[in-house]
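We give this protein:

***
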Amino acid sequence: MTARYELIRHEEGNYPIAWMCEWAQVSKSGYYNWLSRPESATAIRRRELAGHIEKVFDESDGTYGYRRIAAALPSTSPTNEPSTPSATSPASPRTRPAPAPTTTPSSPTTPTTKTNYPPWPFRMRLMRGC
């Protein structure tokens, strides 16, 4: 949704808001609510991190790739809180055991799966629109 709202905000002077909201399939009230929201903590952290990345890249005269930049970030970044587990961190243990496999007796008279489809002739009429 954020990408749609950002597009509407970018094109705000070129087209009426109501039209753009209709084209983007969002409500006008949702768009105006999005405009009035404060910036989230995640967005602030990402913006600050992007600034640190640009600083490290510029200091390297544009020669550092993502590996060197990532290695240089902990020393320059004020907060080093990874949002996802890295390859070097140990995997977290499972908090609950895997469910035991269930078996059902196979019987030709009792179907093991149930569908919510209507019977075949009725289904064909629905598909044809009769």
Observations:
- Residues 1-37 form one domain.
- DSSP finds six helices and no strands in the chain.
- Residues 44 and 50 are 10 Å apart (CA to CA).
